[in-house]
DNA sequence: CAGATACGCTACGACCAGTAGCGAAAGAGC
DNA sequence: GCTCTTTCGCTACTGGTCGTAGCGTATCTG
């Protein structure tokens, strides 16, 4: 806090507050209107791709900024003009993968959850996510700014999926329609942590595979009494 | 693999294959019978304590071997004579905390689970575990030896707790006694990943607290139909 | 006492994150 | 076309870390 009073006044595209990785020209997004030479959007893409590639090959610990720059055909200083640190670069590189997640309405809550779990597990078996995800979470535990970025770009989009699934189920009449919204929101939180945490733990900590059969049993556990478990 | 054929023949206490951190003299453990000057058990303890302390203060990224050595009043080289790397040292430092977990029989499966979840959550709010656990899991994803050590010293003891809880419940007649042991083992695996993963995710990723109320709701979700969730 | 081993110390090699300063390139606005 | 602004690539550098080597000394066993 208490920013030193310096107001550099010479940061056209602020070094940390990143411009969106492009693709925004036709989006109606405000596109910042810089005056000088614009940043190369191609470089952005090349850097993110190179990051994922290096991550998959070398893991979090093996990835170096110099290596990424070389793979992307770009100077190392260019990386630091766009991302404030290695961690934040990796967040962005990984986040795009999680954008592919979606919650399609398959007619029942159980089917919806099974589909999203399967897709999520698939993402977590990619070598790049496997190498990066836990390292990012760990890094974020000591860096509030990084934590915020992780939440925004990786965690929140997943949570929205659970919320969406819940809304679909409610629309289908699978759930009590008179539920107190506050309570419902809390439940979404519990279920989100349960789904994401369990799949991550099984794949990344226990190191056991997530098969269709496992998904079915886990989802059943989530939605009702585990057959034969009690009584 | 394919170890270079060198057979140093001068490793009395092998540098990686650690001697148990002591406390074993009266345990009937075989106590290795070295011939020269024995390792200082006090140093072992001092190092592990210093590691936890540094972890709590500086986090995983901030912890350095030099600093730990200084806190422990020991030369840095001594650390490396006992642990092959920073990661493995931290595993041992953290593992001792998880030894405190236990599954006391409180008369019902729900009560047992609630107790163990509460205790687990308590451990995960310690700054030292908070700083180390995810970092270790991340590190382990690229290092099989470390992964093995983590499983042995941290994950497996937790899993045993779930198994124990299940046995207690079965003894109390809360569960089907004729259950196929193979299926039962798989179920223990699912439930273990669910409990550990969910609590970790909530505390370390979502960053939300684990209250008594949350524990009750989560356990209820685990054991039966979430009240009012479906239908 | 002799042999074996652990210990502390100092120094070192290799590597990496992140920064500094420059000249050159590439757009924007006129 | 010209100027102004900003980015880009390059090279070099700082500061810090892991992990190792070599030595003399301390401590234990037989």
TrEMBL record, chains A, B:
Keyword set, alphabetical order: DNA-binding, Transcription, Transcription regulation
Gene3D superfamilies registered for this protein in UniProt: Homeodomain-like, Tetracycline Repressor, domain 2
Record flagged with keyword Transcription regulation: yes
A Pfam family the protein falls into: TetR_N
DNA-binding region listed in the record: 64-83
Keyword RNA-binding among record annotations: no
Protein name: Transcriptional regulator
SUPFAM superfamilies associated with the record: Homeodomain-like, Tetracyclin repressor-like, C-terminal domain
Molecular function, one GO term: transcription cis-regulatory region binding
Region (Disordered): 1-26
InterPro entries: Homeodomain-like_sf (IPR009057), HTH-type_TetR-like_transc_reg (IPR050109), HTH_TetR (IPR001647), Tet_transcr_reg_TetR-rel_C_sf (IPR036271), TetR_C (IPR011075)
Highest taxon, organism lineage: Bacteria
Residues annotated as domain HTH tetR-type: 41-101
